[in-house]
């Protein structure tokens, strides 16, 4: 079951770097993160990688394996041929810090720009009543482990640095949708989604949903419904007229 | 030497899990300038791993539940060694802390009438755990993270700066606490990313660093759990209690090897899952201890009826407290009745419809499918004990979280006393919230009442910097990875789930040698995001804390909760009255006995006398 696997791992920092070749032991049942750890312990003690839970729950070990955005801890070696050379590179959309570690502060900046949950003023703690069926929509989005693979893969910002300012990315547009669908949130988030967070940039290619390790239907359940709500408000002739007459816009 | 980065705050919170974030929210809401320092990215703390739920006697699922019942369950789970005041505060305040999370935006699973749903768990008399499927820890951490962001947004509106009163320093490790005389004055550490050193000046420090599981080979804990807070407290002059009590969670994954130890939530059993040995027998019926005989069913029929009729039946023995279940699994495997990969079978596939399993246990379904090629809706899981939680920690004042060092506070897993000798499932998340909040308030009150602000002595910085850089000064010394593996093996084999005097003495000899070798650790490369260096610094803490565990475990000549002695198998009422207190001078750990404070009369009166007779001495009962 044990064999010598061939790996190419990107090493370097913000000044530049290159793929480095390694031959390393692979055992039955292992995941790519196990191999990276073995490299650290035996061949490259200063190889930088971010990780934490090693169970697909914290979303720290995001990287690209053979060009595909994945969690290192949830990518089993058994999906590759023993003869295959496996290439591990850092997420491309974020600035490199070192080796496989990138600067993901873009995401924390965007998180701050989404106005927080606005609780109802007339309910004290303990008085909240919600039906399971109503919380389930937002609960799906709250499964997000913030691995930022969707942010990394989204073509609006991947290789388009200039869009980062105006575009919150799938993760945080989904956060807006989550709050909009929260049964007790009192804020109106529809216009914000379009005007402040760049929902209009999304052209629903579903790349984000494809790479989500939690299998959240980001596009179908969060982004498209938000786009529909925006469309209802912006392009409904009666709403349009109302806005004109009462100067709501 | 580059110039030292300096910051000044009122309160430093070390750790950004549930306890740290709740403490930071409280300190900030008291108007104090607060910093959170954490080793990982913000929102990645080990709390995300908690699966089952938050224990709080809200009485949503069974109206008979109240804080007194929760208090009783907690004391029983901890075999009465608990700090009773902490157990009391915890049981009383947990419901408020859960409801408060809803005002921060948390979305728990609901009952039919729209309230927070509560599920069964080991050792809890009624369904008590507020939950979100089996990802409750993620909901807790995300909710607190988002509350912090919301406070930062308020500060931005008012002051034009998100970080005016509450700032998170992520991927930052604290290596030393600073003191001015006998008071806390700040903390010293480094940015993991750049390796640059930083000094924080602050009169109050709240430790919320979690546990010590990374000293053991088979563990459910992440790399962060290196006992940093325990060691920082010791070196600052505070004391640790109950360090001999380590919880081995009964159900960790056992296969494949690379995921050995990863947690399988107790909810599997709470929702109907059963444990079987290789003969297909539900073996837990053979392991009901005397003290629990009247609470647990002794036959399958009654146990199965309990899921639908809790008033008329006793609980299934799969839901005994974790220490009991872990020992039972250990015995079955030893007796040759284990599963192919050295565990036992945990089966929910024959107990619930597939659809229901996917709905109630989505993460477990996902985890087994992706990591072990096992479909838990069709096959049993293979599980075995894994090092999960340390009951021991910093000795604190229950009401304020204050340690014996002025200005030093602790909350959550790094504090000791609340759970006695064994923690009940679900009592951890509630502990984080109740005592995180209390430590935040305690620190705020301390800062408000203090006179002159402390000053960090300059030689603290010089020494801390030299200590941190030492692994770069040598060549050809010890490899930190090798040393870490040897430490894990020693603790796992010699101070593990079943303990013997001879083995623990051997462990102490090995620890002594490891300590000497750690003096010559060598690290390659430079200070920028260097995992070898990070491990070398964490090892110092792991070694110190492991010594506390082994020394205390050797001294306690009885078996109780998370401390099982093969050579002293019974529980001794005399030992219940004693705490083992660890302190350090230089790098020498000493452990001393200290009497427990007697349980308050009105709390004792919550129990039947016959039950108390199982735990207390005749003298205490008179």
Automatic annotation (TrEMBL), chain A:
InterPro entries hit by this protein: 2Fe-2S_ferredoxin-like_sf, 2Fe-2S_ferredoxin-type, 2Fe2S_fd_BS, 4Fe4S_Fe-S-bd, Beta-grasp_dom_sf, Helical_ferredxn, SDH/FRD_Iron-Sulfur, Succ_DH/fum_Rdtase_Fe-S
Sequence similarity: Belongs to the succinate dehydrogenase/fumarate reductase iron-sulfur protein family.
Key word rRNA processing present: no
Pfam families found in the cross-reference section: Fer2_3 (PF13085), Fer4_8 (PF13183)
Protein name listed in UniProt: Succinate dehydrogenase subunit B
Keywords: 2Fe-2S, 4Fe-4S, Iron, Iron-sulfur, Metal-binding, Oxidoreductase
Pathway field: Carbohydrate metabolism; tricarboxylic acid cycle
Record bears the keyword Secreted: no
Named cofactor requirement(s): [4Fe-4S] cluster; [3Fe-4S] cluster; [2Fe-2S] cluster
Native species: Lentzea xinjiangensis
2Fe-2S ferredoxin-type domain: residues covered: 5-92
PANTHER family: SUCCINATE DEHYDROGENASE [UBIQUINONE] IRON-SULFUR SUBUNIT, MITOCHONDRIAL, SUCCINATE DEHYDROGENASE IRON-SULFUR PROTEIN
GO terms under biological process: respiratory electron transport chain; tricarboxylic acid cycle
One MF annotation (Gene Ontology) recorded for this entry: electron transfer activity
Record's GO cellular component terms: plasma membrane
TrEMBL record, chain B:
Domain annotation FAD-dependent oxidoreductase 2 FAD-binding: ranges: 10-429
Domain Fumarate reductase/succinate dehydrogenase flavoprotein-like C-terminal: 484-582
Annotated GO MF terms: steroid dehydrogenase activity, acting on the CH-CH group of donors
InterPro entries: FAD-dep_OxRdtase_2_FAD-bd (IPR003953), FAD/NAD-bd_sf (IPR036188), Fum_R/Succ_DH_flav-like_C_sf (IPR037099), Fum_Rdtase/Succ_DH_flav-like_C (IPR015939), SdhA/FrdA/AprA (IPR030664), Succ_DH/fumarate_Rdtase_cat_sf (IPR027477)
Flavoprotein recorded as keyword: yes
Coiled-coil region(s): 497-524
Domain of life: Bacteria
Assigned keywords, A-Z: Coiled coil, FAD, Flavoprotein, Oxidoreductase
Cofactor (UniProt): FAD
Organism: Lentzea xinjiangensis
Active site, UniProt feature: 322 (proton acceptor)
Entries under Pfam families matching the protein: FAD_binding_2, Succ_DH_flav_C
Protein name: Succinate dehydrogenase / fumarate reductase flavoprotein subunit
NCBIfam families per UniProt: PRK07803.1
């Amino acid at each position: 079951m044990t064999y010598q696997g061939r790996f190419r791992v990107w090493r370097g920092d913000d000044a530049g770097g290159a793929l480095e070749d390694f031959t390393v032991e692979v055992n039955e049942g292992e995941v790519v993160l196990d191999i990276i750890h073995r490299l650290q312990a035996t061949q490259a003690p200063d190889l930088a990688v971010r990780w934490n839970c090693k169970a697909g729950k914290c979303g720290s070990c995001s990287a690209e394996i053979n060009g595909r955005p994945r969690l290192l801890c949830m990518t089993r070696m058994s999906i590759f041929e023993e003869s295959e050379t496996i290439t591990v590179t850092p997420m491309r959309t974020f600035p490199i810090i070192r080796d496989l570690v990138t600067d993901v502060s873009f995401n924390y900046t965007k998180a701050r720009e989404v106005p927080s949950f606005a609780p109802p003023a007339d309910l004290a703690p303990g008085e909240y009543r919600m039906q399971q069926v109503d919380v389930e929509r937002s609960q799906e989005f709250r499964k997000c482990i913030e691995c930022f693979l969707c942010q990394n893969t989204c073509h609006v910002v991947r290789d388009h640095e200039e869009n980062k300012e105006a575009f919150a990315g799938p993760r945080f547009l989904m956060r807006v949708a989550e709050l909009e669908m929260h049964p007790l949130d009192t804020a109106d988030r529809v216009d914000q989604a379009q005007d402040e967070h760049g929902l209009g940039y999304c052209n629903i290619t579903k790349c984000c949903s494809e790479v989500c390790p939690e299998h959240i239907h980001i596009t179908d359940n969060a982004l498209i419904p938000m786009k529909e709500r925006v469309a209802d408000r912006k392009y409904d002739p009666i709403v349009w007229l109302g806005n004109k007459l009462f100067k709501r816009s | 030497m580059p110039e030292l980065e300096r910051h000044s705050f009122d309160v430093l919170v070390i750790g950004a899990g549930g306890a740290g974030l709740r403490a930071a929210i409280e300190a900030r809401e008291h108007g104090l300038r607060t910093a959170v320092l954490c080793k990982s990215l913000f929102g990645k703390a080990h709390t995300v791993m908690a699966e089952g739920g938050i224990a709080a006697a809200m009485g949503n699922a069974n109206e008979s539940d109240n804080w007194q019942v929760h208090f009783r369950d907690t004391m029983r789970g901890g075999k009465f060694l608990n700090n009773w005041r902490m157990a009391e505060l915890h049981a009383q305040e947990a419901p408020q802390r859960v409801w408060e999370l809803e005002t921060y935006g948390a979305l728990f699973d609901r009952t039919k009438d729209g309230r927070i749903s509560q599920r069964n768990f080991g050792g809890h008399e009624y369904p008590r755990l507020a939950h979100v499927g089996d990802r409750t820890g993620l909901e807790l951490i995300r909710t607190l993270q988002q509350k912090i962001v919301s406070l930062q947004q308020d500060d931005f509106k008012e002051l034009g700066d998100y970080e005016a009163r509450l700032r998170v320093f992520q991927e930052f490790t604290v290596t030393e606490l600073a003191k001015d005389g006998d008071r806390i004055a700040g903390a010293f550490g480094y940015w993991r990313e750049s390796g640059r050193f930083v000094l924080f000046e602050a009169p109050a420090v709240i430790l919320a660093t979690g546990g010590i599981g990374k000293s053991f080979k088979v563990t459910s804990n992440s790399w962060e759990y290196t006992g940093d807070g325990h060691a920082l407290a010791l070196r600052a002059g505070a004391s640790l209690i109950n360090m001999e009590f380590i919880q081995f969670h009964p159900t960790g994954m056992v296969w494949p090897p690379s995921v050995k130890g990863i947690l399988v939530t107790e909810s599997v059993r709470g929702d109907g899952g059963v444990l079987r040995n290789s003969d297909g027998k539900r073996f837990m019926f053979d392991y009901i201890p005397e003290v629990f005989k009247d609470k647990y069913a002794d036959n399958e029929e009654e146990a199965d009826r309990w899921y639908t009729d809790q008033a008329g039946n006793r609980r299934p023995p799969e839901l005994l407290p974790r220490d009991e279940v872990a020992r039972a699994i250990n015995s079955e495997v030893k007796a040759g009745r284990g599963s192919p990969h050295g565990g036992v079978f945990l089966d929910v596939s024959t107990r619930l419809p597939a659809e229901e399993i996917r709905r109630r246990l989505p993460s477990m379904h996902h985890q087994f499918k992706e990591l072990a090629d096992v479909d838990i809706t069709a096959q049993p899981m293979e599980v075995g004990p894994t090092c999960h939680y340390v009951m021991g920690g910093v000795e604190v004042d229950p009401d304020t979280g204050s340690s014996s060092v002025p200005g030093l506070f602790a909350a959550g897993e790094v504090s000791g006393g609340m759970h006695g000798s064994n923690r009940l499932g679900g009592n951890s998340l509630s502990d984080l919230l109740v005592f995180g909040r209390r430590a935040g308030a305690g620190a705020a009150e301390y800062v408000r009442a203090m006179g002159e602000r402390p000053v960090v002595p300059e030689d603290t910085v010089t020494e801390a910097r030299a200590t941190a850089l030492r692994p770069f000064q040598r060549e050809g010394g010890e490899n930190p990875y090798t040393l870490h593996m040897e430490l894990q093996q020693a603790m796992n084999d010699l101070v593990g789930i079943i303990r013997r005097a001879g083995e623990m003495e051997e462990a102490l000899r090995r620890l002594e040698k490891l300590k000497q070798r750690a003096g010559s650790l060598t690290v390659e490369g430079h200070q920028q995001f260097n995992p070898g260096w990070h491990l070398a610094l964490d090892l110092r803490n792991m070694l110190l804390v492991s010594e506390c565990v082994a020394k205390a475990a050797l001294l306690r000549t009885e078996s109780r909760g998370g401390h099982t002695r093969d050579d002293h198998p019974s529980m001794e009422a005399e030992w219940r009255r004693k705490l083992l207190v660890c302190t350090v001078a230089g790098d020498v750990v000493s452990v001393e006995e200290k009497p427990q404070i007697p349980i308050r009369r009105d709390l004792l009166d919550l129990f039947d006398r016959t039950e108390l007779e199982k735990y207390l001495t005749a003298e205490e009962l008179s």
